[in-house]
Description:
Layout: H1 3-12, E1 19-24, E2 29-35, H2 38-46, H3 54-62, E3 65-70, H4 74-88, E4 104-107, E5 115-118, E6 127-129, H5 135-148, H6 160-164, H7 172-175, H8 189-203, H9 208-223, H10 227-246, E7 257-264, E8 268-277, E9 280-290, H11 297-311, E10 318-321, E11 333-335, H12 340-385, E12 394-403, E13 406-416, E14 419-420, E15 426-429, H13 438-455, E16 463-467, H14 470-482, E17 490-495, E18 500-502, H15 517-551, H16 558-568, H17 571-575, H18 579-586, H19 588-598
Amino acid sequence: MAANERLREKISHLPHKPGIYKFFDEKGIIYVGKAVDIRKRVSSYFNRSTQHNKKTLKLVSQIKDIEFTIVDTEADAFLLENNLIKQYQPKYNILLKDGKTYPYICIVNERFPRIISTRNKINDGSRYFGPYPSGTTMNVVLDLIRTLYPLRTCTYNLSQENIAAGKFKVCLEYHIGNCKGPCENLVDETTYNEYISQIRSILSGNLSIAKNYFKERMAVAAEEYQFEVAHQYKQKLDMLDDFQAKSTVVSNTLTNIDVFTITSNEKCAFINYLKVMNGSIILTQSLEIQKKLDEADEDIMASVIVQLRHEFESTSREIITNIELTLPLDNVTVSLPQIGDKRKLINLSLKNALYLRKEREGRQEKNKDLGEQRELRVLETMKKDLRLTELPRHIECFDNSNFQGDNPVASMVCFKNGKPSKKDYRHFNIKTVVGPNDFESMYEIVTRRYKRLLEENQPLPQLIIIDGGKGQLSFAVQALKDLNLWGQIAIIGIAKRLEEIFYPGDKLPLYIDKKSESLKLIQRLRNEAHRFAITFHRSKRDASTLKTELTEVKGIGPATAQALLLKYKSVKKLKELSQQELEEEVGQSKAQILYNFLHQ
């Protein structure tokens, strides 16, 4: 049974139930999807009446097998799909896989806790806050805490026994006022833990406890005429106010909300995430997502929301977005606000997403303009170096290939505006030349190429490059003369050994500076033509060998050999098939013969 028939048979037995489906190629999983109705969804990929884009058609062409898993609800399918995508990272699924580990602020689980930064969470009883989208963002918070509170930075084991035994001495941090000296019992544990409690509140987004504490201390100090101490508390209070102002206070009525907005073009989606806690934006992240299968904004957003919430450990029960979205998450509401403070949040987030889009599109346009300027410069240099009368925007290069006279072939590659135009590449089987005659072969392929262009009224190139010396060049020139094209197209030859450029009728070659961009472009054309010819020659030679080997096997006829040749190209690929797979291709009796032959 052929592969397509096997897939159709498998699809016909898929269940009409919610779940996930997996597409496989020869190497493994290439796509994971969810569906309310598995059979209906999978069938749509193979329905000829459905208009698929090129990316989806390419995906379908690579599917060799299908598996599925039934679940109870659409919500279960959604979460299972996300887990499988993270586990297998299929190439046709959108995935945030930048490999980053985000930083945390950690309150270490120890007596007189330290406040440190880390990228590794350990289940040791310590409290972790974050993650933060960047080290810079985290360091701003960390610097604020270390300025407000005199905490230790040493790694000593400050147990009661060690301190009582006098094992430690205060360091420079104590003498410059950054630490209260718990190592010599110069600060009691209750006061120190009060600092830690306030720090927890600040890291959780609640600054009011710390602000009230400094206000009270400032008032007490002022009443006792300790104005210098009062001023120090005033400075710390100002720091908190300044930090809160920079944190973008949205509204005192808003608590914990996740804000997601999206804007997209044909190739990419641009998403912004704002995390709001206690009325303040404590985290913002913008990212660009490359589309894999021309996904809708709703599908991209749903996938990204789950991944970002997991990445930044969000437990918010409310999500607001700028598009209608169905997100089957338990105990989470999703809405599209139109007015009020929540709409202002949406506008702020969307402004960030649009800024990222504008910046990336502007950069791409700039790179495109720079690329076009460079290509134009190279072509101008080539026109000058080769003394051409017009800019060579359309260049074609020819090469021959044969092995000891067997399977003579040729190739033509085409560059337009300095870049490969692969849809215009051509292979040639040599038809009129017997034996290894590169000169006559060159005459044949140049004649066939430009006779065809003339008959089809197609545009001619401004420059022809012949991979070879004077002999092959002269035969190519003769072909142009016989087609009455001589003088209409510039033509040169390039010899491999010294990179000499030959002109028709000129005995002395031209030597272009080895660092010249025009010579590098000519070499690139020559190398591409050689690669294209060699690849074609090898495949033809391998196919010829395979056909010969198979037709020599008793019981395998020319039609069977031809079918296997077209599909598998080489004996090596046939050997990789199991006997059962061979049976699906040629039947039981022939499969037994072939399997014995291939593994004798």
